[in-house]
Write a structure and sequence with these properties.
By secondary structure, the protein is an alpha+beta fold. 26% of the residues lie in helices and 21% in strands.
């Protein structure tokens, strides 16, 4: 339950970045974005053959205009076609909008990139510092603040909608009590917490809520009427239901104080409008801020990836840089990106939350990178009932590595697990000693000694099987 597409993910997929770094077409070869029929075949293979999707909408924009290619359905039994106006949760693609708000605020003289986020928060809140340095707005926007991916007091009442009850009071309590474990600006670590804190701080400085700020400064001026957090009845009618990796419907996510990390919903038409402004096809007074958003560069998660203000810039060998961001919530995986040199932009929206999403499709359309073969379909797991006494036997602390503990607790008939620095997640029994998680594809096997007492636990996730010994 570590980095990226793990518990309560909103953002970047490590596998996607590794693919972008390794699997390349032959250097020097020309690349042309495939036609509609070829794109539709890719989507049909993903849904009908690999069983890795329910519905997918792809949008492409270049100097000749825009086009939409879709395949699949909103939901099982829903005959309404998917199109450019079908609404999806876009997850961490929201971070690009949040950092654009930062670039706009800098242009207006309201903030500076090097301004400490502390200055934008109530005086009663104390943002952690280290080595005499404070966390600045650019540190948050480039995932180099030293803050963890998620706050350690993230314990959702409803795991199916995990961010809904994480409010400003909990965020402030986390900041007051957290000690940074590394120097600010020393290295990249993707942080939903940092993205959400940035959006919250900018909204406070502007004196409005985050959604209002996005509407006034970005979606309103660009005419993106389908991009919002709170959906009107008309937008809700166009929303494609989300699904988990087993293609079962799941609840939508609602974000409170961390909305800037991944709270927006949108459709392909609106995202193409946004990319049209980025590429200069749509005249807008936001263009200077958009360009300035790409100017600061810090090292990213791989040697050929830099991070600007939220945007990630991947440079495949022999290819031009690709500017991109993806997103993921409980039932959706999304991608948007563009090539500044060829002036081609791509958006991929899917309503299934599997490990790969549509990132490989986006990189393939933009730069010819190979499509990624799907792993075996996830096993459908069934929860059984265990007594409170049986569940109590698993309660305790398990040592995976120095400083990395897995703490198991019980609240009535529900067992919970929490890894150091990660949110608490519900554990569901599927056997006397076997449990699974619903928020991520992971399972736990508890081991017992000769006396029948639990002695260890093994985590099964992404092919890894680390073992942790139970502490006295």
């Amino acid at each position: 339950m570590g980095v990226d597409r793990r518990a309560f993910s909103l953002g970047l997929l490590a596998g996607t970045m590794a693919t972008a770094a390794r699997a390349q077409p032959a250097a020097g070869t020309a690349w042309t974005v495939p036609g509609d029929a070829a794109i539709r075949q890719i989507l049909a293979d993903r849904i009908d053959v690999q069983k890795a999707g329910v519905g997918i909408v792809v949008g492409v924009i270049d100097a000749h205009g825009r086009r939409i290619v879709s395949y699949g359905a909103r939901d099982k039994g829903d005959a309404r076609p998917l199109d450019g106006q079908t609404v999806f949760e876009i997850g961490s693609m929201s971070k690009v909008f949040t950092s654009l708000l930062l670039a706009i605020a800098v242009e207006k003289g309201e903030v500076t990139l090097d301004e400490p986020v502390q200055a934008l928060l109530p005086s009663t809140v104390h943002v952690p510092q280290r080595g005499g340095r404070q966390i600045t707005l650019i540190d948050l926007a480039t995932h180099s603040s030293g803050l963890p991916r998620m706050p350690n007091n993230f314990a959702p009442e409803d795991p199916a909608n995990p961010y809904a009850d994480y409010d400003a009071a909990r965020l402030y309590a986390f900041l007051d009590g957290y000690s940074l474990t590394r120097d600010i600006g020393s290295r990249y670590e993707y942080s939903n917490l940092g993205g959400g804190l940035l959006g919250h701080a900018l909204a406070r400085r502007a004196g409005v809520d985050y959604e209002t700020l996005v509407r006034r400064r970005i979606t309103g001026p660009l005419g993106m009427a389908s991009t919002a957090i709170a959906l009107t009845p008309a937008l809700k009618a166009r929303l494609a239901p989300g699904h988990n990796a087993a293609l079962a419907p799941v609840a939508n996510w609602d974000l409170d104080v961390l909305a800037g990390a991944g709270g927006l919903r949108s459709d392909a038409d609106d995202v193409l409008t946004f990319l049209a402004a980025e590429l200069g096809f749509k005249p807008t007074p936001l263009k200077r801020a958009m360009d300035s958003q790409l100017a600061p560069r810090r090292p990213g998660p791989a040697t050929n990836i830099e991070v600007a203000l939220a945007w990630h810039i991947t440079t495949p060998p022999g290819r031009d840089p690709i500017v991109w961001h993806n997103g993921g919530t409980g039932g959706y995986r999304t991608f948007m990106g563009f090539d500044p040199k060829t002036r081609v932009g791509v958006v991929v929206l899917t309503n299934v939350a599997n490990e790969r999403g549509g990132d490989d499709i986006g990189f393939h359309l933009l730069a010819g990178l190979p499509l990624v073969a799907l792993k075996a379909p996830p096993v459908v797991r069934h929860e059984i009932a265990l007594s409170a006494e049986a569940l109590e036997a698993f309660v305790g602390r398990y040592d995976f590595a120095p400083g990395v503990l897995f703490t198991v607790t019980r609240d009535g008939a529900q067992l919970y697990g929490q890894l150091t620095g990660q949110p608490r997640v519900a554990l569901y029994p599927e056997g006397p000693n076997d449990f699974f998680l619903k928020v991520v594809d992971a399972q736990l096997t508890f081991e017992r000694g000769p006396d029948g007492k639990v002695t260890a636990v093994v985590l099964h996730q992404n092919g890894a099987i680390p073992r942790a010994t139970r502490l006295p």
